[in-house]
Amino acid sequence: NYATLRTKNNCWMNLEYPEMNATVYLTYQKVTDNIDSLLYDAQKLTYEHNIKAQGIFEQPRVDAINDVYGMFYAIDGNAATQSQFYVTDSINHFVTGSLYFKAKPNYDSIYPAVMYLRNDIRRIMETISWEE
Fold first, then answer.
1. What gap in Å lies between CA 94 and CA 130, rounded to an integer?
2. Taking the C-alpha atoms of 126, 36, 99 and 114 in order, what is their torsion angle to the nearest 10 degrees?
3. Considering only CA atoms, which of 21, 39, 35, 47 is closest in space to residue 109?
4. How confident is the model at residue 36 (pLDDT cuts 50, 70, 90)?
5. Tens digits of per-residue pLDDT, 49-101?
6. N or C: less crowded end of the chain, CB within 10 Å?
7. How far apart are CA 83 and CA 64, in angstroms?
8. Contact between residue 33 and residue 90 where contact means Cβ atoms under 8 Å apart
9. What residues are paired with 47 via a beta bridge?
10. Vertex 123: Cα angle to 85 and 95 (nearest 5)
11. What is the C-alpha radius of gyration for the chain, rounded to an integer number of angstroms?
């Protein structure tokens, strides 16, 4: 109810939360013998925020029934992003998401919104399914 989905092109979408001044940037990529580089890029993007982060906490996602596997990253501190994730079936589909606020990061001030949006991101990860 608080978000608007904006399609940028065939593979990019923004989930915008105007009242929280935040956006979850979503990207879909087709897996074509490049799963290693996709995983590396997703992890590298997250850990580039380690300089400003007080901590990065990983929460794996494993849904063997629906072939959805991934990682949720909670980034605490005054980093540019407070949450990132990826999900994949390792064969055909790869989705990444990053949460950004349209303000200078001040973790104490945005903490309530961060916690709300982390729950939304987890819900996205839990409900993703693949279509062929």
1. 10
2. 60
3. 21
4. very high
5. 777 778 889 999 999 999 999 999 999 988 888 999 999 999 999 999 999 99
6. N
7. 24
8. no
9. none
10. 35
11. 14
Specify burial of residue 29 (Cβ count, 10 A radius: 0-12, 13-18, 19+). middle
Backbone φ and ψ of 122, nearest 5°: -60, -40
Tell me which residue of 39, 74, 82, 80 sits closest to 56, measured CA to CA: 74
What's the pTM value of the predicted model, to 2 decimals?
0.90
Count the residues in the chain.
132
Q: Which residues contact 6 (CB under 8 A, 6 or more apart)?
A: 13, 14, 15, 16
